[in-house]
Amino acid sequence: MPASGRPPWRPPSARDLAALDRLVQAGSVTPLQRDEAIHTAYAWRVSLPDVLSAMYRVTSLRWARELSAASGLPLVDLRASPCDHTLLAEAEHDLYLRHLFIPWRRQPDGVVVIATLNPEDPAIRALMRERMPGCHVEFVITSKFDLIWAVQRIFDPELSEAAREALFNRNPELSAKVTLSAGQKTVAVGIGLALLLALGLAPRLTLLGIMATVSALYASLFAFRGVLTIVGSGRRTDISVNASELAALKDGDLPVFTVLVPMYREAEVLPILVDSIRRLDYPRAKLDVKLVLEAGDTETIEAAKALGAEDLFEIIRVPDSQPKTKPKACNYALRFARGEYTVIFDAEDSPEPDQLRKVVALFNASGPEVACVQARLNYFNRDDNFLTRMFTLEYSQWFDYLLPGLYRLNIPIPLGGTSNHFRTEVLHELGAWDPYNVTEDADLGIRLTQAGYRVAVVNSTTFEEANGVLHSWINQRSRWIKGYMQTWLVHMRRPVELYRRLGPVGFLGFHMFIGFPPMTALINPLLWIMFLVSVIVGRSAVAGFFPGPVLVLALFDLMVGNAMYVYFNIVAVAKRRWYGLVPWGLLAPAYWVLHSVAAYKALLQLITNPHYWEKTTHGTSSRTQETIASLKAGSATGSEAQ
Q1: Do residues 142 and 271 share a domain?
Q2: Which residues pair with 257 in a beta bridge?
Q3: Pairwise CA distance, residues 512 & 504, whole Å
Q4: Which of 157, 287, 312, 604 has the largest count of CB atoms under 10 Å?
Q5: Which backbone phi and psi does 307 adopt, to 5 degrees?
Q6: Is residue 536 in a domain?
Q7: Across-strand partners of 389?
Q8: What pLDDT sits at residue 544?
């Protein structure tokens, strides 16, 4: 059973209220805050300690101490007094996390002592009776973080192994752990030999066939994007959740939402993350935020501790192992998720405050086949330089037109790396992310569709930092292109089965959106060179190889097709009324040169180092630096006032 979800809500017990009164007596909570906390616990249908932690900074340890004193149950430190491992079962660690308990000790008379923060949860006794028929249980109190720490420490080897190998062990053909299957190697060698033979026997005819195929491919790509843009621009597609649907949501009915924030060496942008989470229009006590940090990243771990943030922010330390990738870290952290839904945010993300509510409303209005909701992505530092402007043009068309078009046509949607919201149980069902795929988001979008699920696009935007540093942009883009290559190769291991599951339109869309773009980025430089040769030397230099109709189609692709790309990008930013970016759309061809540079780096890495994760450097923009400075200044002012 996955850890997602929480036990059924119970009103505050007499013990809870007694512990709360002790906090009032100690001056940690005012009488007014006491009444507000009780009212909020009923209104939100959450536990009293979760309300106190989220709203009044009462830590889990402080609550455990007061609950122990109020109930007369001993307080134990699981670090100083560890559990008896013989009482534990690896298969049950999800239950321990869901109900926040763990079998601690067995007394000489056979009584099993349970360490918990919820001694009145009837499910704990029921679970223990089922596992140990006839046993008697007693309780001791411990803090939430002690419980999470104990489960992680005890089951760390199993959790780490599952994060790396669960998908591969379940279905090796859906994992990018192996780049090329034996069958794909055979086909690749066969195609290569056949091409060499054809070039040797009939070079002119072979080149003609290649050029005609490439030209037709480009023309089909232009047409496909044009159709997606037109379909995705429809009003029915554009508006997913309206104000009345949001108003109908009651705080008490909202589910727990897990937020995974994988980070590596990003201590500086942590204040932005905490501020963004606090600004979400969602009951804080129903947020289950995991700061997913590498165990060896001491700087970020210490910075996270120093923030002194509410207990809803939990640090999950990912054990050091290979591959060291974002999807492996997310897989590990997912086992600690308690939410009905799970979303991925990057550290510098700034989602619109009502995004989670819109997602819940969209899930409520959709059938169970909608397993993921993708929010739109765009950039807050779009005016920094050439790269950030071009990035914004690209993303505006991608998320505002192309992805909604894919949804309307029921074509697999390659998810963005952030702001994708999942039904947690479906993530567990599918084996979550592929830790060996460096665009795990795109791959998961295809696997969702193959499994019969759909991905919807919600009318909410997450603003993030566009990469404006050239070498970092090349690294990031080469990882994306390499990941698309991996995804295409993985899902083409059984093309007939893929066709059967996706249908003809979905199968075509998969190639147009996943397979062909990396291919065109590799081919483009060759075509540009050929075009320059024909301009400098004259048409006669290539006319001997390519007849007029083929050259006309190639010229059409070059002129009309590229003009369409430029036009669609301009339309996308005009929709958001960012008119200052419109002239920059004319420079798109220069941007495509950088794509080709990244594509060749991606191809080289696919061959030599397929699972290497090119780290994107965040926090480089002046806007980000100003935000960090402002948050630090505000924090310092608040500390002085206290």
Answers
A1: no
A2: 287, 341
A3: 12
A4: 287
A5: -65, -30
A6: yes
A7: none
A8: 62
Q: How far is CA 44 from CA 122, 158, 256, 284, 559, in A?
A: 21, 35, 10, 10, 58
Where in the sequence is the domain holding 510, given as residue range(s)? 171-642
- Residue 233, domain member (yes or no): yes
Locus of tokens 């794909």: 184
Q: Where are the alpha helices (DSSP H) in 233-385?
A: 235-238, 243-247, 270-278, 298-306, 326-334, 355-365
Summarised one tens digit per residue, pLDDT across range 449-458 is: 999 999 999 9
179, two tokens: 């780049």
Burial class (CB in 10 A: 0-12, 13-18, 19+), 484: buried
Segments of the chain scoring below 50 in pLDDT: 1-4, 639-642
For residue 161 the two structure tokens come to 């192994």
Q: Is residue 5 part of a domain?
A: no
Q: Which residue has the tokens 């997912």?
A: 334
Distance CA 287, CA 55 (A): 12
Residues 388 and 261 in one domain: yes
Neighbours of 308 (CB within 10 A): 12
DSSP string of 124-153? Answer: HHHHHHHHSTT--EEEEE--HHHHHHHHHH
Which residues are CB-contacts of 434 (< 8 A; sequence separation ≥ 6)?
167, 174, 175, 176, 327, 440, 443, 444, 490
Cis preceding linkage at 323, omega within 30: yes
With contact defined as beta carbons under 8 Å apart, do 337 and 290 qualify? yes
129 contacts 45 by C-beta, under 8 angstroms? no
Structure tokens at 34: 């006491």
In a domain? residue 565: yes
Cα distance between residue 335 and residue 337, in whole Å: 6
Last residue of a domain, one of 151, 186, 221: 151
* Strands of 340-392, DSSP E: 341-344, 350-351, 370-379
Please state, rounded to an integer, the average pLDDT across all residues of the chain: 90
pTM (two decimals) = 0.92
Residues 227-240: b if buried by 16+ CB within 10 A, e if exposed: ebbebbbeeebeeb
Tokens read off for 513: 């959106």
Residues 635 and 516 in one domain: yes
In the chain, the number of structural domains is 2
Q: Which of 82, 117, 151 is the C-terminal boundary of a domain?
A: 151
pLDDT value for 642 = 45
- Kindly report the CATH number assigned to the domain that includes residue 33: 3.30.300.160
Torsion angle (degrees, nearest 10) of CA 194, 198, 200, 206: -140
Same domain, 451 and 303: yes
Closest CA relative to residue 273, chosen from 360, 348, 190, 168: 348
Task: Please report the pLDDT score of residue 542 as a whole number.
Answer: 64
CATH number at residue 348: 3.90.550.10
